[in-house]
Amino acid sequence: MFHLVFSLPWLFVVTRGIWPLPWTPGAKIAVSLLLLIASQFHLCSRLSSGSVFNPEFPRPVVMLFNWLFGSVLLMAAFQLALDLEALVAMIVSPEAARSSPVWPRYAIGIASLMLAAFAVLQAVRTPPLKDVRIVIPHLPAPFIGYTLVQLTDLHISRLFTATWTRKVVDATNRLGADLIVVTGDVIDGSVASRRGAVEPLRDLRAPDGVFLIPGNHEYLSGYQEWMKHLTSLGMSALANAHTVIAREGGQIVIAGVTDHSARGAGKEPPNLDKALDGVPEAAPILLLDHAPRNAPRASERGVALQLSGHTHGGMVWVLDRIVARANGGFVSGAYMVGGMTLYVSNGTGIWPGFALRLGRPSELTRFTLVRTAGYGREVKI
Question: Is 353 exposed, middle or buried (0-12, 13-18, 19+ CB in 10 A)?
């Protein structure tokens, strides 16, 4: 059924966009078959690796698939808009609607190919820095100006290789943050196939450490093996647990929970009560939760700041509204949830099965903790 759904845009493009063109039957069939293969990218991924989640094609092939797959989706959307315009024209002026020029179909094809190429390039680049100031009213004085960097949804894979990971690590270390947090979906694939690609993560450095929680893709790729391997690279796992960071008599709590997909994998599900058990009463709590949808529950428990990812920012403008509905209304950027700030990162990387970004850029996110909105330089969020 999953693969059948993605064949529907292809069928629409072929019947409404390709077949009416003044081409030879052979040319129409050839282009239609090429687009059919592109529309079945995830089936091809399953055949290459046994899973739709981690295609094992060479990086250029993964990028090519995403480009053509994205082009099919965009062509379908543009063709639908063209057909709706024609329907309105037919109602308003039946005589004018009889002429059906071919050039709009060529324009749709060219625009779709160009936009999809741009979307792939935006998805695979080294993410730019995004500075965000977070106001925590009762922040202890020694932590005013405290900085932390969030990495999330790296999806290290055949698309995001060791070279890309090295660039992200170097960019992160240059920021000199006090703390680094990694909020899940680090990888796609087994430890055996990704060992070299994740190796640069060993060099992440911050005075107060590097903390990790799992995302849903860790459970798809071998949770036990990956958490063991990632902690061997110097990360500290917070799976329904917390740690206290002390500075000059002040304290903050960094807590983390597992992902909702843990239950389906037979692992410990997220347990916020367990994660917060025994936290110092006056210390602000910073919670790491891969998916943002449980933010109201965290707010009720007195969490000051929740950092999440998972949504990839919605990836494409308009599509982000659908992604938001599946995640409690949260999809990108900062939200006030009761007295808590929720920040949903667009992601450092993106799932290689949908590596397209239009209007929802990747980000390397640096947070500065402050007590009041007037502290330091103004940063828009």
Answer: buried
Integer Cα distance of 40 and 36 in angstroms: 6
- Comparing 297 with 5, the larger pLDDT belongs to 297
Residue 240 DSSP code: S
- CA dihedral 39→44→49→54, nearest 10 degrees, is -10
Considering only CA atoms, give the Rg of the chain.
Answer: 23
Q: Report the distance separating Cα 353 and Cα 2, nearest Å.
A: 13
- With CA atoms as reference, report the closest residue to 200 among 176, 227, 222, 233: 233
Whole-number pLDDT of residue 381: 33
| CA–CA gap between residue 50 and residue 192 (Å, rounded) | 15
> What are the two backbone dihedrals, phi and then psi, of residue 210, each rounded to the nearest 5 degrees?
-125, 120
From-to residues of CATH 3.60.21.10 in the chain: 126-370
pTM value? 0.93
Pairing of strands 147-151, 305-308: unpaired
> What architecture (CATH level 2) is domain 126-370?
4-Layer Sandwich (3.60)
